[in-house]
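ARCHIVE CARD
Drawer: 12
Card no.: 0347
Subject: one protein chain, sequence and derived structure
Cross-reference: see card 0346
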Amino acid sequence: MLARKYGPIMHLRLGLMPVIVVSSPEAAELFLKTHDLVFASRPPQEESKYISYNEHNLVFAPYGSYWRNMRKMHTLELLSNHKISTVRSMRKLEADLLVHRIREAAAAGVAVDISSEDMVAASMDTSAAATDWTMTELIRHPNLTKKLHRNSKIWRHPVAPLIVHASREDCTVYGFHMPKDARSFINAWAIGRDQRVWTDADKFNPKRFVGSNIDVRQNSD
């Protein structure tokens, strides 16, 4: 792994574009927390123009007043606890219908393509990737099937192994100069395999967080 050889922050060039690869928890905290406003934006991507209304959705829009208003609308109007609760019965109905269709296909011996179901693109891709890696690990470790813990799979095979951001202005991190518009790749894959942080980092262990003080849904105590 390059991070073990060259350190937690590496500078690359993809063509003319400077890229900073961040591969340790400490370095990631500097980019995502200490200097979060500097690296809050997303870089423009050609494909996102076609799948997100010319980058006008919450995921791909550049950081600014428009993005902040979008986030506020999502937080208060779309994804608040009250709003989510009001459509709970609808979500359950859709989930039941999906399970029913999968059962029918399985009974008929027909292969099921989950990605062909009516799902949001982001949730479709991440769920499919998570499911694929879960099944791969269980096939390789059949003795652990009954002990599966969902978050062990996500830690070992993150659905987004590289989290991409773009710097909004020049910045100095770890003594290194980060130019404006540089891409920063937060290497979640490497962070999840950091031997300094995790015991047996390369081992698939569904019981990794059982009995620990780590809240896998939020933060450590």
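Annotation on reverse: The longest strand covers residues 9-14. The two ends are 31 Å apart (CA to CA).
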